[in-house]
Request: fold
Amino acid sequence: MTDAARIRNFCIIAHIDHGKSTLADRLLEATGAIDARNMRAQMLDTMDLERERGITIKANSVSIRYTPPGGEEHLLNLIDTPGHVDFSYEVSRSLAACEGALLLVDASQGIEAQTLANAYLAIESGLEIIPVINKIDLPAADPERVAKELAGILGGSPDEIIAVSAKTGAGIDHMLDAIIEKLPAPEGDRAAPTRALVFDSYYDTYRGVVCHVRIVDGELETGDDVRFMATSMPATADEIGMHLPASQVVKKLHNGEVGYLITGIKEIDLIRVGDTVTSAKHGATNALPGYSEPKPMVYSGLFPIDGDDFERLRDALDKLRLNDSSLLYRAETSRALGFGFRAGFLGLLHMEIVRERLEREYDLDLVTTAPSVEYEATTADGRILRVSSPQDLPDRGILESIAEPFVKVMIITPSDYVGTVMELVQQRRGEMGEMTYLSPTRVELHYQIPLAEIVYDFFDQLKSRTKGYASMDYEPAAYRTSDLVRVDILLNDIAVDAFSTIVHRDKAYHYGRQMATRLRELIPRQLFDVPIQAAIGGRIIARETIKAKRKDVTAKCYGGDITRKRKLLERQKEGKKRMKMVGAVEVPQEAFVSALRIDE
Amino acid sequence: MLSPDSIELADMAARWRSAYVHIPFCRRRCPYCDFAVVAPGDPHADDLAGLTQRYLAALHAEIDIQSEVDNGLAGESLDAINLGGGTPSSIGATAIGEIVEHLDSRFGLAPGAEVSIEANPEDVSEELVDGLLAVGVNRVSIGVQSFDDEVLRFLGRAHTAEQAGAALEMCVPRFACGVDLIFGAPGESLDSWRATVASALSVYPHHLSAYGLTVEAGTALWRAVRAGASAPDPDDQADKYEVVQAAAADANLVQYEVSNYARPGFTCRYNLSTWGQGEYVGLGVGAHGHRNAVRSRNVRSVLAYVKALEAGDLPEAGREVPVEPEMERLILGVRRSCGVDLGEWEEAAASHAGLQRLVAAGVIEIRRGRLRVLRPLLADDVAATVLSLSP
Reply:
């Protein structure tokens, strides 16, 4: 047990690639928590995808014992935070478990939008910030410029900013000193009823749900009867421990400490990030603030290419959800794509990660429909419906108006690209807000943009138009009524639900035209002419025709080679099997996949 | 006389036994051809005359071995012999006569058997005609391909339209004579094709084959198309197919298969037998055989073929027993105008969504258990759908 005065709880706020994981590794090494030989590069990022993309999706924590030269032993709890805007709620809960944060910035690149957004969030949460400039060993490093920029944002003098190289270890000791000297020790009342913040949880096949907790008040002891306050779920503290970084069982954790808690609960839904654990008897009456339900921002249909895989897809989603309670889904039936799911995601990255994990870890081939947001449709009789699938939009006859979610977007870009960025935002129906110069060459821009406009390749466009220099962050803003319409795509007079979309009226024609042209190229010729139409209600806005197939026969059979002939026909038969029937039209699965691909 | 498209004839053809003899030698290699062929300039073809002699010796050796094989055709007489190529006419009437005679002595020829060879116009002379007749050849298919010299040049042919006309004039009066045409070469106009068909029909041939130009992998044409040259256009080919269909009907030639038309009594037996799942012995390089329900194929390299037989071995490259012979019968049979008896699949066909769509679209009809393709240009679509009757 460590006296709260000798505990420091902190996180590292950093942009992707600015070296957070390497710095964490270096800390573990410098404090002797793990020796260099046993070190797996980037200890904290455990999921394959995290390692591959260089991002953190799940928060981890690690406790480090460290004795400064001539001082007493301290316990440093490094709480990892997700590094992406999609996971901002998880970020906020991780921050709530800390008293301080290292703001890590690449010495050659300067601060990025997401980092700045998280830094603001940390400051608002009352955290003490220690700015750290990393990668000073790189030839392109310009620590003085970055230090000036940071001092401009956070106040203070550029000279006080710590410069390190997580790669070489330079400056790490200096940083450790700063953690102990500058960051406040945790407060909290040991005598008060127990309150522990769940800042992360994951599912272990053998142990059930493992929660990462920060004890705020009181203490938690093995065998205690506890209660999760948001869900009112009673449980028993079967095991309590710390990550050093290897798991080590402890008898109890007290206020200020960070560790894990296993209760034997198997359903991740019952243990939510942000919930408060208290004692079953004489427990706290007020939960810790800040808890909220996960709220999806982006929706998409997930359909197995092979209809027989529906149950496998359900199992896979169920399994993913064990570890990711923010993933929501319900079964959905599409006339065109068959049985599948409508899934809600925290954002585009979250969606992409889920899709990739389904395909990679569960070996599923999926058709993903165009990402959509949740609209609010007001009917003539004043009812308000939440619509996350274009199919659910009420008929035009009874539809009064449609409102769409807007987001507040912050973009940081070199000033040379301000014009380019403005142009992009205008194309996406954005409204300009404040514009602030962070330094003579870097600008912080604020906008309100419809969420639907940024879920569609906005980030990629921003990156490519600014040669990768701009960064962005966004947070939800209010709903606003817009002139939105549903565009349906009709194949041989039958609407193909998978291609329906809700778009701004000004963009409807473009969508219809593009989809009709693409489908004409992707769908093979049939036995009859197939009209492809794009329609708003009953009005046709674009039309293409797939001309009837007239010839499908090989001229002859060379030298009596029946075997080859049969093989060719077998291949053709297999091709037919992969077709989905839309009315009388055979549509290859690949056509759905390609037509719905965003990046074309 | 049975009509070429009659069910009775097709059923007889299924019981006919044939020999296919492959003669690989050509004056030049046509850019679209992917047969086993030897042409001047090929590796190992410096001494073409010598190679031809070795090849013919090997071929005779194969006839000996194959006729000893106790499966299917041995001891049974042949209803048809077909010499294909390559260019069978290039080896001359004497060599052809020796092959026919050898087959007769080993297998026996049924009375009225078809003895057919493919000939290129530039090889046809009165002397060849006399020679072929003397050795028992009674049927000749002339590789005319087109009556448009520009198209002939594109197709890499060694003859002119004039030579083609002359060859037909010599052959039509003396043999059951077929004209082979190729349509849809890039650059061939619809008018050019109409003129070709008219010229072909003007000599009153007994038989007409019209094949759409196909780009076969590995050929010079295929390489050219891959490099950006225009490929045959399926709609253009469909137009031309309809032209020849109509013209042949006007000339009283009856269509009995996707690409073949004949006057009554002059169907190509070997051809009709192939689509009727009939049995045939395949002789020569790259030849395919079908005996006792086993499908076999010979090696495609002339040298490998010759060496195998010189060592006393069969030059076989592979063989297989079709997994579902009944299904094979169906997918072959759909190419015939008379259609195919669905047999055990009749009930399944009645409730098969894909086939019923084809019925609704007027592509096929199913009557009294028999499936007939009404639009032969879609025969592969039909065959692939028929295949899906079996899981």
Chain A has five domains: 4-182, 195-279, 298-371, 376-482, 485-595. The interface with chain B takes residues 527-528, 547, 549-563, 565-566, 568-570, 572-573, 575-577, 581, 584 of chain A (CB under 8 Å). The mean pLDDT of chain A is 87.
